[in-house]
């Protein structure tokens, strides 16, 4: 097949290498340049130009992230791809590009359960924030909707209790590599997985404000938030003395019992770690940018509502 591999995400690099290693396909790599990625604030960005060069593949940098530029339309229409594989491309694929292919466009979506449950934005982050123990990684046929096309291949992936979003991306990336040939054959044959029958739940977009810590919550709930928004994302936020700080790694405390008011620092350690009381249990702050944590400090919750 003549395939366009379209991505901006670092976690899909190995999937590209796996597809190339099969030797079955004529592959063209497409991505965006670093300046475009910076303007679009793309998290987990990878420049695919050097990756394509290492693999000996041709590369094309699109002019617009939303693929609306006439030069991009002309490129895709003249290339006459059999399939576009869009992994880690966080924009809708225009209908005219879908129609320019022979078989269609393959996209990916990993959500708490099989589609349509968990359509929408930030499904990997939501899966961790909501405390799910598994995620369903799916490759599907992209249509004009949002994650509404037929599923071509699917795998259930466990979420470990300490998995960050980055670790989960590694797991999902391997799943993509193992599923992609199956998805390509199913797309060509118009062979789709049965519908899950689950409710159509659309996940809302998340923003930095959703990463503000509420110390009234249970330690486990806060820890799930921290590991969900840890790098490559921005981390979770807390306040001290009217200033904002970032927490990127934590652990639910399972040592000797300690108590205090939610947000109170119970103990500070020489390496900068600190034990903080929450609404239920304590949380060990392991990686953060606050040098002022000491016993008795009261950390602030950067929230605007009054509901616990």
From TrEMBL:
It comes from Cyclonatronum proteinivorum. Keywords: Transferase. This is Methionyl-tRNA formyltransferase. The keyword Transferase applies. It catalyses: L-methionyl-tRNA(fMet) + (6R)-10-formyltetrahydrofolate = N-formyl-L-methionyl-tRNA(fMet) + (6S)-5,6,7,8-tetrahydrofolate + H(+). The keyword Transferase applies. Residues 2-173 form the Formyl transferase N-terminal domain. Attaches a formyl group to the free amino group of methionyl-tRNA(fMet). The formyl group appears to play a dual role in the initiator identity of N-formylmethionyl-tRNA by promoting its recognition by IF2 and preventing the misappropriation of this tRNA by the elongation apparatus. The lineage of its organism: Bacteria, Pseudomonadati, Balneolota, Balneolia, Balneolales. Its EC number is 2.1.2.9. GO terms for cellular component: cytosol. GO terms for molecular function: methionyl-tRNA formyltransferase activity. InterPro entries: Formyl_trans_C (IPR005793), Formyl_trans_C_sf (IPR037022), Formyl_transf_N (IPR002376), Formyl_transf_N_sf (IPR036477), Formyl_transferase-like_C_sf (IPR011034). Pfam families: Formyl_trans_C, Formyl_trans_N. Residues 208-288 form the Formyl transferase C-terminal domain.
């Amino acid at each position: 097949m003549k395939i366009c591999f379209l991505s901006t995400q670092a976690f899909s690099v190995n999937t590209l290498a796996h597809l190339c290693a099969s030797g079955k396909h004529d592959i063209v790599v497409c991505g965006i340049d670093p300046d475009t990625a910076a303007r679009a604030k793309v998290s987990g960005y990878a420049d695919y130009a050097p990756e394509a060069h290492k693999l000996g593949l041709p590369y094309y940098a699109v002019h617009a992230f939303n693929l609306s530029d006439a030069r991009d339309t002309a490129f895709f229409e003249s290339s006459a791809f059999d399939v576009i594989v869009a992994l880690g491309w966080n924009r809708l694929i225009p209908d005219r590009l879908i129609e320019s292919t022979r078989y269609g466009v393959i996209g990916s979506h990993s959500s708490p359960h099989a589609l349509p449950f968990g359509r929408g934005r930030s499904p990997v982050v939501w899966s961790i924030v909501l405390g799910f123990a598994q995620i369903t990684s799916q490759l599907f046929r992209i249509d004009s909707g949002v994650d509404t096309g037929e599923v071509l291949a699917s795998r259930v992936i466990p979420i470990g209790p300490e998995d960050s979003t980055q670790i989960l991306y590694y797991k999902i990336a391997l799943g993509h590599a193992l599923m992609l040939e199956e998805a390509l054959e199913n797309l060509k044959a118009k062979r789709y997985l049965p519908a899950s029958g689950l409710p159509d739940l659309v996940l809302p977009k998340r923003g930095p404000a959703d990463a503000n810590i509420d110390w009234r919550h249970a330690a486990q709930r806060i820890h799930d938030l921290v590991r969900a928004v840890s790098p490559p994302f921005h981390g979770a936020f807390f306040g001290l003395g009217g200033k904002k700080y970032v927490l990127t790694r934590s652990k639910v405390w399972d040592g000797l019992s300690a108590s205090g008011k939610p947000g109170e620092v119970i103990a500070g350690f020489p390496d900068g770690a600190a034990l903080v009381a929450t609404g239920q249990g304590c949380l060990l702050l392991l990686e953060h940018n606050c040098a002022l944590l000491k016993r008795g400090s009261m950390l602030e919750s950067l929230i605007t509502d009054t509901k616990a």
